[in-house]
Amino acid sequence: MTELRHLRYFMVVAEELHFSRAAARLNMSQPPLSQQIKQLEQAVGTPLFTRTKRSVSLTNAGRDLYERALPWLEELDEMFSRARAIGQGEQGSITVGCSYTTSRRLVPQAIRLFAQRYPSVTVKLIEAQFDRQVEYLARGLTDLAVIRLPVRHADFVARPLYEEDLVVALPPDHRLAGRARLRLRELRQEVFINASRQPVGLFDSVRALCESAGFTPQVLDICSNAHSAVGLVGAGMGIALVPESVRHADHKHVVYKPLSDSPRSVVGAVCRRNHSAATQLFVDTIAELAG
Protein backbone atom coordinates (compact mmCIF):
# COMPACT_ATOMS: atom_id res chain seq x y z
CA MET A 1 0.00 0.00 0.00
CA THR A 2 1.35 3.38 -1.02
CA GLU A 3 1.83 5.79 1.87
CA LEU A 4 2.66 9.48 2.06
CA ARG A 5 6.23 8.66 3.06
CA HIS A 6 6.77 6.83 -0.26
CA LEU A 7 5.87 9.99 -2.15
CA ARG A 8 8.11 12.16 0.04
CA TYR A 9 11.02 9.74 -0.51
CA PHE A 10 10.39 9.87 -4.26
CA MET A 11 10.43 13.69 -4.26
CA VAL A 12 13.85 13.81 -2.57
CA VAL A 13 15.35 11.24 -4.94
CA ALA A 14 13.86 13.13 -7.90
CA GLU A 15 15.53 16.33 -6.70
CA GLU A 16 18.92 14.75 -5.94
CA LEU A 17 19.00 12.17 -8.77
CA HIS A 18 21.39 10.29 -6.53
CA PHE A 19 20.28 7.63 -4.04
CA SER A 20 23.20 8.09 -1.62
CA ARG A 21 22.71 11.86 -1.38
CA ALA A 22 18.95 11.43 -1.08
CA ALA A 23 19.41 8.87 1.72
CA ALA A 24 21.72 11.23 3.58
CA ARG A 25 19.20 14.06 3.21
CA LEU A 26 16.48 11.79 4.59
CA ASN A 27 18.74 10.60 7.43
CA MET A 28 18.45 6.95 6.40
CA SER A 29 20.62 4.36 4.71
CA GLN A 30 20.48 3.76 0.94
CA PRO A 31 19.13 0.14 0.79
CA PRO A 32 15.86 0.91 2.65
CA LEU A 33 15.39 4.00 0.47
CA SER A 34 15.84 1.99 -2.71
CA GLN A 35 13.33 -0.53 -1.39
CA GLN A 36 10.77 2.20 -0.68
CA ILE A 37 11.13 3.57 -4.22
CA LYS A 38 10.66 0.09 -5.68
CA GLN A 39 7.47 -0.31 -3.63
CA LEU A 40 6.18 2.99 -5.00
CA GLU A 41 6.99 1.97 -8.59
CA GLN A 42 5.16 -1.32 -8.06
CA ALA A 43 2.13 0.51 -6.70
CA VAL A 44 2.15 2.99 -9.61
CA GLY A 45 2.71 0.23 -12.13
CA THR A 46 5.61 1.77 -14.03
CA PRO A 47 9.27 2.74 -13.46
CA LEU A 48 9.81 6.26 -12.18
CA PHE A 49 13.61 6.31 -12.50
CA THR A 50 16.10 5.06 -15.06
CA ARG A 51 19.05 3.64 -13.19
CA THR A 52 22.54 2.93 -14.51
CA LYS A 53 25.82 2.35 -12.71
CA ARG A 54 26.76 5.98 -13.25
CA SER A 55 23.51 7.92 -13.14
CA VAL A 56 19.89 8.14 -12.07
CA SER A 57 17.30 10.02 -14.15
CA LEU A 58 13.55 10.46 -14.13
CA THR A 59 11.39 8.62 -16.63
CA ASN A 60 8.63 10.55 -18.36
CA ALA A 61 6.19 9.07 -15.83
CA GLY A 62 8.48 10.05 -12.97
CA ARG A 63 8.86 13.62 -14.26
CA ASP A 64 5.09 14.00 -14.59
CA LEU A 65 4.52 12.60 -11.09
CA TYR A 66 7.06 15.00 -9.62
CA GLU A 67 5.54 18.06 -11.32
CA ARG A 68 2.02 17.15 -10.19
CA ALA A 69 2.99 16.09 -6.66
CA LEU A 70 5.09 19.17 -5.86
CA PRO A 71 2.24 21.75 -5.47
CA TRP A 72 0.05 19.14 -3.76
CA LEU A 73 2.71 18.39 -1.14
CA GLU A 74 3.37 22.10 -0.61
CA GLU A 75 -0.35 22.64 0.03
CA LEU A 76 -0.43 19.61 2.32
CA ASP A 77 2.51 20.95 4.32
CA GLU A 78 0.71 24.28 4.66
CA MET A 79 -2.42 22.51 5.92
CA PHE A 80 -0.34 20.54 8.44
CA SER A 81 1.36 23.75 9.58
CA ARG A 82 -2.00 25.47 10.05
CA ALA A 83 -3.42 22.50 11.97
CA ARG A 84 -0.33 22.47 14.20
CA ALA A 85 -0.65 26.22 14.85
CA ILE A 86 -4.34 25.83 15.73
CA GLY A 87 -3.53 22.93 18.03
CA GLN A 88 -0.95 25.08 19.80
CA GLY A 89 -3.41 27.98 20.09
CA GLU A 90 -1.50 30.29 17.75
CA GLN A 91 -4.10 30.35 14.97
CA GLY A 92 -7.89 30.23 14.73
CA SER A 93 -10.50 32.16 16.71
CA ILE A 94 -12.00 32.40 20.19
CA THR A 95 -15.13 34.09 21.54
CA VAL A 96 -14.97 35.85 24.90
CA GLY A 97 -18.07 36.63 26.95
CA CYS A 98 -18.21 39.45 29.49
CA SER A 99 -20.75 41.55 31.32
CA TYR A 100 -21.15 45.31 31.46
CA THR A 101 -19.31 45.48 34.77
CA THR A 102 -16.45 43.10 33.85
CA SER A 103 -15.82 44.36 30.32
CA ARG A 104 -14.37 47.72 31.35
CA ARG A 105 -11.46 46.74 33.58
CA LEU A 106 -9.34 44.04 31.97
CA VAL A 107 -10.96 42.65 28.86
CA PRO A 108 -10.02 45.45 26.40
CA GLN A 109 -6.41 45.44 27.57
CA ALA A 110 -6.27 41.64 27.38
CA ILE A 111 -7.62 41.62 23.83
CA ARG A 112 -5.06 44.22 22.75
CA LEU A 113 -2.12 42.34 24.33
CA PHE A 114 -3.37 38.99 23.01
CA ALA A 115 -3.63 40.42 19.47
CA GLN A 116 -0.03 41.62 19.70
CA ARG A 117 1.21 38.22 20.82
CA TYR A 118 -1.01 36.01 18.64
CA PRO A 119 -1.98 38.03 15.56
CA SER A 120 -3.31 34.96 13.74
CA VAL A 121 -5.99 34.32 16.38
CA THR A 122 -9.22 36.28 15.98
CA VAL A 123 -10.96 37.34 19.21
CA LYS A 124 -14.70 38.00 19.21
CA LEU A 125 -16.44 39.67 22.16
CA ILE A 126 -20.00 39.04 23.36
CA GLU A 127 -21.42 41.23 26.13
CA ALA A 128 -24.27 39.65 28.08
CA GLN A 129 -25.63 39.41 31.61
CA PHE A 130 -24.46 36.64 33.93
CA ASP A 131 -27.09 33.97 33.27
CA ARG A 132 -26.74 34.33 29.50
CA GLN A 133 -22.97 34.06 29.75
CA VAL A 134 -23.22 30.76 31.62
CA GLU A 135 -25.70 29.50 29.01
CA TYR A 136 -23.51 30.59 26.09
CA LEU A 137 -20.46 28.93 27.62
CA ALA A 138 -22.31 25.67 28.31
CA ARG A 139 -23.65 25.56 24.74
CA GLY A 140 -20.24 26.27 23.22
CA LEU A 141 -21.26 29.66 21.82
CA THR A 142 -18.38 31.25 23.73
CA ASP A 143 -14.99 29.83 24.67
CA LEU A 144 -14.57 31.66 27.96
CA ALA A 145 -16.35 34.20 30.10
CA VAL A 146 -15.02 36.91 32.40
CA ILE A 147 -17.64 36.84 35.17
CA ARG A 148 -18.15 36.90 38.91
CA LEU A 149 -17.33 33.77 40.89
CA PRO A 150 -18.25 31.24 41.95
CA VAL A 151 -19.91 29.62 38.95
CA ARG A 152 -21.39 26.29 39.93
CA HIS A 153 -21.11 24.07 36.86
CA ALA A 154 -19.41 20.66 36.75
CA ASP A 155 -18.00 21.19 33.25
CA PHE A 156 -16.40 24.59 33.97
CA VAL A 157 -13.03 25.56 35.39
CA ALA A 158 -12.31 29.05 36.75
CA ARG A 159 -9.22 31.16 37.29
CA PRO A 160 -9.65 34.09 39.73
CA LEU A 161 -8.49 37.44 38.36
CA TYR A 162 -9.27 40.22 40.85
CA GLU A 163 -11.54 41.22 43.74
CA GLU A 164 -14.01 44.08 43.82
CA ASP A 165 -16.10 45.86 46.46
CA LEU A 166 -19.74 46.86 46.40
CA VAL A 167 -20.65 50.53 46.35
CA VAL A 168 -23.99 52.25 46.90
CA ALA A 169 -25.50 54.13 43.95
CA LEU A 170 -27.60 57.09 45.19
CA PRO A 171 -29.38 60.06 43.62
CA PRO A 172 -27.33 63.26 44.15
CA ASP A 173 -30.04 64.77 46.38
CA HIS A 174 -30.30 61.71 48.63
CA ARG A 175 -30.05 62.33 52.39
CA LEU A 176 -26.86 60.22 52.53
CA ALA A 177 -25.22 61.64 49.40
CA GLY A 178 -22.97 63.93 51.44
CA ARG A 179 -21.41 61.10 53.45
CA ALA A 180 -17.93 59.87 52.54
CA ARG A 181 -18.64 56.24 53.52
CA LEU A 182 -21.69 54.24 54.55
CA ARG A 183 -22.59 51.03 56.37
CA LEU A 184 -25.20 48.58 55.15
CA ARG A 185 -27.43 48.97 58.23
CA GLU A 186 -27.77 52.70 57.51
CA LEU A 187 -29.70 51.76 54.36
CA ARG A 188 -32.45 49.82 56.11
CA GLN A 189 -35.15 52.39 55.22
CA GLU A 190 -34.29 52.43 51.51
CA VAL A 191 -35.85 50.82 48.45
CA PHE A 192 -33.20 48.65 46.78
CA ILE A 193 -33.13 48.02 43.06
CA ASN A 194 -31.81 44.51 42.55
CA ALA A 195 -28.95 44.55 40.04
CA SER A 196 -28.79 40.78 39.54
CA ARG A 197 -31.47 38.09 39.33
CA GLN A 198 -28.97 35.24 39.31
CA PRO A 199 -26.76 33.95 42.15
CA VAL A 200 -23.33 35.55 41.63
CA GLY A 201 -21.05 34.89 44.57
CA LEU A 202 -21.22 37.62 47.22
CA PHE A 203 -23.51 39.62 44.95
CA ASP A 204 -26.03 36.77 45.00
CA SER A 205 -28.90 38.94 46.28
CA VAL A 206 -29.54 42.28 47.86
CA ARG A 207 -31.82 40.60 50.36
CA ALA A 208 -29.14 38.20 51.62
CA LEU A 209 -26.60 40.99 52.00
CA CYS A 210 -28.98 43.20 53.96
CA GLU A 211 -30.17 40.38 56.18
CA SER A 212 -26.56 39.71 57.09
CA ALA A 213 -26.45 43.35 58.27
CA GLY A 214 -29.52 42.85 60.47
CA PHE A 215 -32.52 43.98 58.42
CA THR A 216 -34.87 42.80 55.68
CA PRO A 217 -34.80 45.24 52.75
CA GLN A 218 -37.55 46.38 50.46
CA VAL A 219 -36.37 45.15 47.04
CA LEU A 220 -37.57 46.34 43.66
CA ASP A 221 -36.75 43.48 41.31
CA ILE A 222 -37.33 45.06 37.89
CA CYS A 223 -33.95 44.80 36.13
CA SER A 224 -31.23 42.21 35.59
CA ASN A 225 -27.94 44.11 35.40
CA ALA A 226 -26.02 46.85 37.17
CA HIS A 227 -26.19 49.29 34.26
CA SER A 228 -29.99 49.23 34.23
CA ALA A 229 -30.12 49.43 38.02
CA VAL A 230 -28.01 52.59 38.04
CA GLY A 231 -30.26 54.11 35.38
CA LEU A 232 -33.27 53.54 37.64
CA VAL A 233 -31.39 55.10 40.56
CA GLY A 234 -30.84 58.18 38.43
CA ALA A 235 -34.58 58.26 37.73
CA GLY A 236 -35.30 58.34 41.46
CA MET A 237 -36.65 54.80 41.76
CA GLY A 238 -34.42 53.82 44.69
CA ILE A 239 -30.80 52.95 45.48
CA ALA A 240 -28.64 50.06 44.28
CA LEU A 241 -25.70 48.00 45.46
CA VAL A 242 -23.41 47.63 42.45
CA PRO A 243 -19.81 46.58 41.74
CA GLU A 244 -17.22 49.30 42.21
CA SER A 245 -16.30 49.21 38.52
CA VAL A 246 -19.70 50.68 37.63
CA ARG A 247 -18.73 54.04 39.13
CA HIS A 248 -16.29 54.61 36.28
CA ALA A 249 -19.11 54.68 33.74
CA ASP A 250 -20.66 57.99 32.75
CA HIS A 251 -23.96 57.88 34.68
CA LYS A 252 -25.54 61.25 35.21
CA HIS A 253 -27.66 62.02 38.27
CA VAL A 254 -25.97 59.28 40.34
CA VAL A 255 -23.31 59.36 43.07
CA TYR A 256 -21.46 56.39 44.48
CA LYS A 257 -20.51 55.80 48.10
CA PRO A 258 -18.21 53.04 49.40
CA LEU A 259 -19.37 50.67 52.11
CA SER A 260 -17.16 50.18 55.14
CA ASP A 261 -18.62 46.68 55.59
CA SER A 262 -18.73 45.75 51.91
CA PRO A 263 -18.28 42.12 50.91
CA ARG A 264 -15.78 41.45 48.15
CA SER A 265 -16.60 39.79 44.87
CA VAL A 266 -14.09 37.75 42.87
CA VAL A 267 -14.06 38.15 39.10
CA GLY A 268 -12.58 35.24 37.18
CA ALA A 269 -11.99 33.75 33.74
CA VAL A 270 -14.26 30.72 33.30
CA CYS A 271 -14.03 28.16 30.50
CA ARG A 272 -15.04 24.58 29.78
CA ARG A 273 -12.75 21.83 31.04
CA ASN A 274 -11.96 20.67 27.49
CA HIS A 275 -11.07 24.16 26.28
CA SER A 276 -8.79 24.89 23.33
CA ALA A 277 -5.14 25.89 23.44
CA ALA A 278 -6.05 29.38 22.18
CA THR A 279 -8.52 29.75 25.05
CA GLN A 280 -5.80 28.82 27.55
CA LEU A 281 -3.46 31.39 26.01
CA PHE A 282 -6.11 34.09 26.47
CA VAL A 283 -6.73 33.02 30.08
CA ASP A 284 -2.97 33.23 30.73
CA THR A 285 -2.85 36.68 29.11
CA ILE A 286 -5.70 38.21 31.10
CA ALA A 287 -4.41 36.60 34.33
CA GLU A 288 -1.01 38.16 33.68
CA LEU A 289 -2.63 41.60 33.35
CA ALA A 290 -4.64 41.03 36.53
CA GLY A 291 -1.39 40.41 38.36
Automatic annotation (TrEMBL):
This is LysR family transcriptional regulator. One of its GO terms (molecular function) is DNA-binding transcription factor activity. InterPro entries: LysR_HTH_N, LysR_subst-bd, WH-like_DNA-bd_sf, WH_DNA-bd_sf. Belongs to the LysR transcriptional regulatory family. One of its GO terms (cellular component) is protein-DNA complex. Keywords: DNA-binding, Transcription, Transcription regulation. Residues 1-59 form the HTH lysR-type domain. The keyword Transferase does not apply. It comes from the Bacteria. It comes from Ramlibacter aurantiacus.
